[in-house]
Write a structure and sequence with these properties.
With 261 residues, the chain is α+β, with helices and mostly antiparallel strands. It has two domains: 138 residues, no CATH class; 112 residues, OB fold (Dihydrolipoamide Acetyltransferase, E2P). 30% of the residues lie in helices and 32% in strands. The chain has a five-stranded antiparallel sheet, covered by helices on one side. A five-stranded mixed barrel has the order 6-7-8-10-9. A hairpin with a 5-residue loop joins strand 6 and strand 7. The longest helix is centred in the first third of the chain and has 23 residues. The chain is elongated. The two termini are 23 Å apart.
Length: 261
């Protein structure tokens, strides 16, 4: 299993400026952090370290202190999929991760710009990020569909900076979904009171083309949907041999096309 990711920053000129190197490291760090969040639901605690650093074409190899090989493979394969061109997001490449990739277009502009960034794992080239990374990421971000509906999941993050948002982890896809809500005191308090609970959110849902939910806006309702362990369970009202009755989450995954082949 791969242990580290290597990024080779090839400058447009003979040597890379310090500014280009620092900007590239900042974008790489943001990408690693957001993929880790999608996989492990943690923005901190899974630290990455520089294991090798070369100076010709600035080359940095980054490894996880915890030996997190899943993240290494996910990031490498995801970048490769995006750079090859697709209209569906790689696994764990959320809207925020794709925005991180689109933002990397800045590395290929201006006087001190990169020509390409080569991504490799175990000394094997996996992908090459070029100026068209913005177009490749935008292709995925602009694909998909929207409809009115509801999602259920655990509410685990709140941000009140700028336009208020919170994040739920969709119970069906296990994906983080960013939800925008009104900047009103009553709404903010209601959302804070639900932090950590399983909630049902009803509003305008945007999906990726593969059925993974991305965002919810124009929220009409949010309420606590945590099951009450003290309530009796009914033995009626469904047909036992139907998939929806046996496993409703699995049934919904099949409707969205999320079942593994």
């Amino acid at each position: 299993m791969p242990e580290g990711l290597t990024f080779i920053i090839n400058p447009e000129t003979q040597s890379a400026s310090l500014d280009l190197f620092l900007r590239a490291l900042g974008d790489i760090n943001r990408l690693l952090r957001d993929v880790n969040y999608a996989i492990h639901r943690e923005r901190s605690g899974r630290h990455w370290v520089i294991s090798h650093l070369h100076t010709s074409s600035p080359t940095v190899t980054i490894e996880s202190l915890l030996g997190d090989q899943e993240s290494v493979s996910t990031i490498a394969n995801g970048i490769r999929t995006v750079t090859l061109g697709t209209d569906q997001p790689p696994e764990y490449f959320t809207e925020q991760v794709l925005e991180d990739l689109r933002r990397m277009r800045r590395l290929f502009r201006g006087r001190d710009r990169a020509h390409s960034i080569i991504v490799s794992v175990d000394n094997e080239e996996t992908a090459t990020i070029r100026e068209d990374i913005s177009d490749k990421a935008s292709r995925i971000l602009t694909s998909g569909y929207s409809n009115l509906g509801s999602l259920e999941g655990r509410l685990e993050a709140i941000s009140v900076h700028g336009s208020p948002t919170f994040t739920i982890w969709d119970r069906v896809s296990q994906a983080p979904v960013r939800c925008s809500f009104p900047n009103q005191t009553s709404w903010i308090q209601d959302v804070k009171d639900l932090l950590g609970n399983r909630v049902m959110v009803r509003g305008y849902i945007r999906y990726f083309l593969n059925g993974i939910p991305r965002t919810i806006s124009d929220i009409a309702e949010i309420h606590d949907s945590t099951p009450d362990p003290n309530l009796p369970k009914a033995d009626f009202g469904s047909i036992p041999d139907q998939e929806a009755a046996r496993d409703p989450v699995k049934f919904l995954r099949s409707i969205r096309g999320l079942e593994q082949e």
